[in-house]
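User: What would this chain look like folded?
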Amino acid sequence: MMMFKDNTPLDHLASDLAADAGQAWKDMADFPGYKRTIWRDTAKLHVRRHIPDARVECLPSGWDGKEGVCFIRKR
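Assistant: Here's the prediction, encoded as structure tokens.
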């Protein structure tokens, strides 16, 4: 089981998963349907499958359509 701190930003896990796949987080676009969003979705699935004592909570989307900041929280 993966260790994490309560309120860890989901982007930390998403960027780690992307790096493991050889993709640089800083080079990715941050709009709906772009790579960062895809890696965030992958991170959400990872939390559900591999960290049973955690959940993902997200702030509402912004006016520009960007996804709100998400956090990994302890149950």
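The chain has a mean pLDDT of 88. If you want, I can go into more detail on any region.
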